[in-house]
Batch of 3 targets.
Target 1
Amino acid sequence: MPTSMLPAAPIMVPTDGTEASARAIDMGLSLASVMNTHVVFFHVLPPLATVELMADTIQGSEPGHAAAMAKRGRQMLASACSRASESGVPAAADQVVDRRPDCAILRACAKHGCGMIVMASHMLAESYSAFHPSCSRKVLRAAGVPVLICK
């Protein structure tokens, strides 16, 4: 098989359910189609705050907030995989809990052998982002693979 016909490494597409992430999903699917590869959709859940966990425990209720967030994440990933299927692009999905989404994205990229990351940027104000770098900016600086930022 000629080298140009071999599938490229998968494309990592982190998603958080926003419009910007939807644009990143579309771009990732377009690139995967052209590059003859598949996409890995990825979602990072924030860890449950200790206060919330203790409140649920004291009240004797199920930890509903964490379960609801995990369910919402699974639904976002399922929707992205459905869009991939409609586009004829093979897809996988992964979700983790981590307080540092940038680090989680980079670990998942390595875990899945991805050769590129296509992600959204929420375009923080320059004065704010100078002191609080965005997740996309952190990924861009630390990634060992090309990163395409969709606005």
Target 2
Amino acid sequence: MNRRGLAVIGFCLLTLGGCGKSYSMEEAVKNGDIVTTPEQHHMDRFATFLKHVDEKEKDTIRITNYTTEGDAILEDVSYDGKRFTYSLDSSRDAYGSQTDDRNKEICQNLEKRTENERSVVFLTDCEEGEDHEILVSDVAESEQ
């Protein structure tokens, strides 16, 4: 096969590969994801997750945030009754860097803090040494 044919095949594969990575907000909401930006959806599901953690019951959630450009950043959090497993996938973010992505990092605790009049939920005591902010909401919203 000549170089031009290889170039065309390569271009087609790159184009198709990129298209397969999009994840619209409508799709995330339909799948039951907890969406926090730019709109909030399924926040009651997050409250249920927190209740399960308090009761030491197993549960798994996906939190999907969107960048200004509309690219999805996915966070998967599983709780096994004792500890959390955290994964972060920013591969759909065209302007982002995957250097901070995580794949099944173990975290020991979940903490809720108030910062700048916002309620922030973190996973703490994680294997790689950093806390992970998983949800931010206005304090007034979180008290309802």
Target 3
Amino acid sequence: MAELETTPLPAEHTDTQTIKMSDTDSQNVRHHHNSNKEHIDKEEPLAHTDQHPLSVTELLASCPEARQYAVRKIESFADVIAHARILAPMIGIDDRTYQTAQDRIGPLATATTIWAMMQFYDRIKKAGAYFRALTVGSKSEGFDPVRLIRQLAASHDLRTDNCPRTT
């Protein structure tokens, strides 16, 4: 058997802290699993509430003021949101305020709030400030646009029930 000849390593390779791996770095990458599922395609609810979800039909019946400005038929929640984006600047809500509300409470809740505000817009002095307070400001804690729509529907029903009949 031949004896192995040992030669000292150059000084640059004597550092015991540095370890050179022989395989490529890609073999050492670990897979990370995210246990929080994202549901991108699912339609989000109008608001977090114990009440039943609001339907497009109920929204249309509760908010005739907003509905009358629609240039096309409102048939889905996507139509509701698109129409709210048109209504918002008409009542003094700028794009930044709208986007902030949408980020905070969601696109459908933001749109529903705009629709509801159209019902009593004539009684609001500063619609932009009122909208900001409801959706992201001091009054936003506990604000539920579904409850507001249902209150509007109830008050609308009371007004139509008290109208004299002309038959």
